Amino acid sequence: MTENLTMHKKISLTNLYFNRFLVIRYTTAFFLFLNLYWATFLIGSLSIVAILPLALFVLGILTTWEQIKLYRNHCNKLPYARLFYRTLAIVFMTLVITFYTPLFQFFYPFLKQTQQTLHVLAILLVVSLIITFLMLKKLNNIQHNRDQYFKRIQTYEEFIN
Hints:
The protein is about 80% helix and about 0% strand. It is built from 7 helices and no strands. Helix 2 runs antiparallel to helix 3 and helix 3 runs antiparallel to helix 4. The relative contact order is 0.13.
């Protein structure tokens, strides 16, 4: 019975540490599909720029793989996730800058450059940029054990010991 309880405690702690990255996993999945759709439209337009979202997609896959490994080996440092979100931030800022330039058609050959399109795309990119910065902040807090989830884990560990 005691061995069963000890195993349950271990599994609970493992799950808590793994769930610490839950928001990052879901956000990564969102950006994975966003880049996949962008790449699909660019490939359909026969654009060489499709390499950019495909590279981001591959980096997102590496980030996903890194997070899957966290279940067995807990770690606070996620170098692929940090690289992924930093790269996304740079790409999103670059894309916002290109809105009113001829480069717009280079990155979005499948869209018409109308005010309505620019507004919708600007909102999408700005919201994505904000989410990206929030994820970078969360990764930084996790790396330095300053996140709320870690405090809950510590409280739970004190409770079960």
